[in-house]
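Q: Okay, next protein. This is GntR family transcriptional regulator from Rhodococcus opacus. I've checked the sequence twice, so it should be correct. Can you predict the 3D structure?
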Amino acid sequence: MAQSSSMVYELVRSRIMAGHYAPGAHLTEGQLCDELDVSRTPVRAALRRLTEEGLIQTEPHRGAFVAQWTRSDVDEVFELRCVLESRGAGLAAERRSADECAELRKSVDEMAKIAAAKKSTYKDDLHHNNREFHLLVLSAARSPRLYKIAEQLAYTSVTLGTYFYYSDTDIARSIQFHRDITDAIAAQNRTVAESLMSAHIGVGHVAFDAGRFGQSHPDD
C-alpha cells in the first residue's frame, strides 16, 4: 500500500507541476481514483502529503484544491531563501568538516549523472538531489534555527517546482553553481560562498517566474 501511495503522490505532484491540474483546480478523491485506477486509501495518503508540502490546500466541507501561488508569494519565498541560504553558505564555509565537503562533492557529481542520463524521472530526481544539496549546506552551517526555518522553505511548492521549469541550459548552470559553491565552502571563502548562493537562488527565481508566469523577473 505504501508503494501505491507513493506512486499516486508522484503522479499527482508531477501533474500539478506540469500544469495539468491548474492552480485552484478542485481535486476530488473519486476523480483521482478514476484517473489513476487506484482505491481511495492511497489517494487520501497522497493528498495529505501534498497538503503538508503546500501543493494542495484543503478547505473544510469543500475538499482539496491545487494551491494558488501569487507573484508576491513566489517573490517572498525566493527572497527569504536568498537571505537565509546565503548566510548558511557563509557559515558553512567557516564551520564545515572535510566529510561534509566530500558529501557536497558527491551530491554535485550525482546531479551531473542524473542530468546526463536524462531518464523519464530525471526532473524529479534533480529536485530531490537539489534539495539534498541545499540541506547539506545548511547542515554544515551548524545553526539549528537557521536550518529549521530554511528547511521549511525548501519544502514549499515554489521551491519543489523550480526544476520542472528548467531548460537543459538552466540545469547545466545549476550544476555549475553547486560545484562552485562547494569549492568556495571547501576553500573556507565565506564571501564567495555567500555571493554564489545568492546568485544561484536569484537565477532560480528568474527561471521559475519565466516558467510559471511566462515572463522574466522585472529585475532581470
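A: Here is a summary of the prediction. The chain has a mean pLDDT of 90. The chain has two domains: 2-66, 71-213.
Q: Noted. On to the next one.
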